[in-house]
Design brief:
mainly alpha, single chain, 298 residues, disordered C terminus, globular
């Protein structure tokens, strides 16, 4: 398989894991556990999953300052912002704001920092995504007038994730090293603070549900999705990776309608189709790309 196709598989893996992450976060918020509790499950699960990799290959191969920067953005900023947002706003809001805003932030950052200009195909795909996001927002935001506080937290979360994406590109950090750094540093820093000082309602979850959530939010959402996302950024670039994950709002809106009873109107369905079309417009050329035959250098 070409590197580009491997990158596409990684990006689509992130797409499905992130959709489940957002739906599961909204479900947990309905179970009356705090955002701090969900974060604790996430960090503990990721830490336990990373330990075998630590034994196998040693600590992340980067300076401690870089590891802390990645942990601050992808570990704390993104997850705490997202979990706090889902306490105050429905799943569709998180999908629309976080995954919908990300491709624009990354495309702009890549243009300014790395000189990667916007071609016609990228402009068309971003335009479709942007218009679809606006329609989804119009359809879902009006029914929850008090959700603006959660929406601000979603914006903070996506800014942190965009910063993480920019840092791994700037520092050229490998996928496994970046993922291990976030998994290994977050738990020791956060869990003692949560245990002694932060409000908790963990008793509302059964032991089986706690273990399941540790696996979902830690092993899948941090370790697997973090590795796949970072690998996709390395192989495809940040703009195209984020264009694929821009389909998360459509999938979250569908999942929220099917599993959480958060309905969509006709405008929302049109938005779903446009976002999906924008993602397809970005990905289709890569799916049909063929490797060039080697040329003679004489």
């Amino acid at each position: 398989m070409s590197e580009r196709r491997i990158g596409l598989l990684c990006a689509f893996g992130v797409l499905f894991i992130w959709t489940g992450f957002q739906l599961m976060s909204r479900f947990l918020a309905a179970q009356s556990v705090t955002a701090w509790d969900i974060a604790a499950l996430r960090y503990a699960g990721a830490f336990l999953t990373a330990l075998p990799f630590l034994i196998w290959r040693g600590p992340p191969r980067m300076p401690v300052a870089q590891a802390l920067a990645l942990t601050a953005t992808a570990g704390f900023g993104f997850s705490l912002g997202a979990y706090g947002g889902f306490q105050l706003a429905p799943a569709a809001h998180g999908g629309v704001i976080m995954a919908g805003l990300l491709p624009f932030l990354i495309a702009a950052a890549w243009w300014i920092s790395f000189g990667e200009a916007w071609g016609l195909r990228r402009i068309v795909s971003l335009a479709l995504v942007g218009f679809g996001i606006l329609l989804l927002g119009r359809d879902t935001f009006g029914d929850h007038p008090g959700a603006w506080r959660g929406d601000l937290l979603f914006i903070f979360a996506v800014l942190c994730w965009a910063a993480y994406t920019w840092l791994i590109r700037k520092w050229r950090i490998g996928a496994l090293d970046a993922t291990m750094a976030v998994a290994l540093y977050a738990a020791p820093l956060f869990l003692p603070i949560w245990w002694f000082w932060l409000p908790s309602r963990m008793e509302n979850l059964s032991l089986g549900m706690e273990i399941f959530q540790m696996a979902w939010h830690g092993a899948l959402s941090v370790m697997l999705a973090g590795f796949l996302f970072t690998r996709a950024v390395v192989l495809l670039g940040g703009p195209q990776t984020s264009a694929i994950t821009a389909a998360v709002p459509a999938m979250v809106a569908l999942g929220g309608w099917l599993f959480l009873g958060e309905t969509l109107g006709a405008t929302g369905w049109v938005g779903v189709l446009l976002v999906t079309g924008g993602m397809v417009a970005s990905v289709l050329p890569a799916l049909t790309l063929r490797p060039r035959a080697p040329t003679s250098t004489g």
